[in-house]
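Following up on my earlier thread - several people asked me to post the actual chain instead of describing it. Fair enough. Here it is, all 318 residues.
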Amino acid sequence: MRIRIWLGLLLGGATLASAATSGRLDAQENPLPAVEKVRNYLPHMTVPEVQDLLSRSDMVILPVASLEQHGLHLPIGTDYLNGVERAKLIAQRADVLVAPILLPGQSPYHMGFEGTVTLPSPLIQEVYVEAAKSLMTHGFKRFLVLNAHGGNAAITRFIVDRINQETEGIAVDLGAVLGPFRQPLAGTPQSDNAPPVFDRHGGTGETSSSMYLIPELVNLDVAVPAELTLPPHMEAMLPAVIGGDPTALTVFLAEGLKDEATGKGTSAAQMSTTGVWGVRDPAEGTAERGWADTESMVTAAVAFIERWNELRPPGTGR
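Reply from S.P.:
Thanks for posting it. Predicted structure:
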């Protein structure tokens, strides 16, 4: 009798152990989408892979982005995600490291919409400069600072200048050097034939890029035209801005999209019902336009990198 009891306990225990093991195996299957490894993308790389890249290249792309509202139809991480995707695409054609450092940028004027995260300019600068110093320690020398958020334009220039003035590294603002290399793609318009209207943050341009780069995160079903309320003097400037007057645009942007605390009355929430800064329906964006704009930028960036390598091959200089 005791032997039968012991056998029963042993067999029952084995069955329970088997079931538990099976349960653990099921539990270990990650329900989230699989992560696919991307070449030259630092978060995916091992130490030997970084060492191997260093044997061929000393160049790094540093995306500078933001976490901010992008209307009802685009994710808060639009600038970060699109910027990193562009950097990855460049790195598939050119041997450069892509090193994302921060998700947030400087976006105080979007804080009226839930989910926005903003950091002060000096802090952002310090983080990127210190990150660049870390990479210099390992042998990376040249830095392409890719600004993916218009509000970071001045910060990007400061980061570039500080790397050049304070460290052994060499940096350029990638967006500022692409002009001579950027050509429109035949047969694929980077805009469309719609009448010109005010169409900026979260509008058809960003929507189009997102439809190409991060289509799973775009929800056009909820996209609607924003209702804008601009200060009267800015409203009066709009025809000149839309008409392409560079002075009008400069003056307009000097006041537009500023922190509510400045008293200008031009934060995103004060001017727009949806957060989009424009009157055109974002749903008019197209993946084709997004591809054309991205392809033009990526091709120009690769051409610049190749030219920089001709002028200063990796490993030259001090």
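Residues 105 and 294 are 22 Å apart (CA to CA). That should answer part of your original question.
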